[in-house]
Amino acid sequence: MGAGHGHGHAGSRHRWRLAVAFGLVAAFFVVELVVGIVSGSLALISDAGHMAADVVALGAALVATKIATRPDDSGRRTYGSYRAEVFASGFTVLIMLGVSVYVVVEALRRFGEPVEVASGPMLVVGGIGLVVNLVCLALLRGGAQESINVKGAYVEVVADAAGSVGVIVAGVLVAVTGIAQADTVVAVAIGIFVAVRAVVLGREVLAVLGQHAPVGLDLDAVVRDLEAVAGVAEVHDLHAWTLTSGMNVATAHLVVGVGADAQAVLEGAQTTLREVHGIEHATLQVEVTPARECRAATW
């Protein structure tokens, strides 16, 4: 039984970036959590929570890229396992939202309570964390535009970089003003920022899972270009969606004129979709007249 076509994809090309970032973040997470607990800084603990989310998100991204390239021996996954990367991005969104909720709830609980925060450790660890995050951003940026999986990890690290900046700001405010609640206020700001980033990424994930038309693809233009192919009289039942980052697929029915060369029409349509619209995998059906089943279809 045929299993689906094999494709190269963006996530696997950037797996080494994920691996290096994973190692850096995992090492720093332990340091930040310990210092946060010892110093009593909620900003540090919240940033450590984001780091923990990073560790899980990067680990999930690494596993997903491995699963995505695994051959299908069952014959059931005709599109392969590429969607594993999209699921990993969705998992990252849930982690980010969970951490944000925890930080905001904990911050609200702290308001009005006497809090002691050691600003020195906050500044040192916040500075180190910012450096670690900037290195990870430089690593992941190269793949964030190509892979939603890598983008999920990149967005998570962006949030952590903002968290590190927040920790530094909180440390300075506590040191200068002596007001420990500044730490709590900054923690809330970090939590809200992370939640907003998570929602933006979550919308992209849902668009892929909902099989929406690929971002930037003009379906009307696709129809016009296909109808411009020699021999094509009409195009209908066009569907286009994203399988995973960098892998757009489509199906369509092409009604050809009398005497048209069906094979030439197919080749011309495939070339148009590939070279003009970036759709390399398209399943096209050629019809002399619109099939009765097409006219009777209700979706």
UniProtKB/TrEMBL annotation:
Domain (Cation efflux protein transmembrane): residue spans on this chain: 19-209
Subcellular location(s) per record: Membrane
Coiled-coil portions: none
Database matches in InterPro entries: Cation_efflux, Cation_efflux_CTD, Cation_efflux_CTD_sf, Cation_efflux_TM, Cation_efflux_TMD_sf, CDF/SLC30A
Record GO cellular component, one term: plasma membrane
GO molecular-function term, one example from the UniProt record: zinc ion transmembrane transporter activity
Chain ranges of the Cation efflux protein cytoplasmic domain: 217-287
Transmembrane segments: 18-42, 86-105, 117-140, 152-179, 185-202
Main location (coarse class): membrane
Keyword Ribosomal protein: no
Keywords of this entry: Ion transport, Membrane, Transmembrane, Transmembrane helix, Transport
Membrane topology note: Multi-pass membrane protein
Domain of life (superkingdom): Bacteria
Keyword match Coiled coil: no
Family: Belongs to the cation diffusion facilitator (CDF) transporter (TC 2.A.4) family. SLC30A subfamily.
NCBIfam families: CDF
Protein name: Cation transporter
Source lineage: Bacteria, Bacillati, Actinomycetota, Actinomycetes, Propionibacteriales
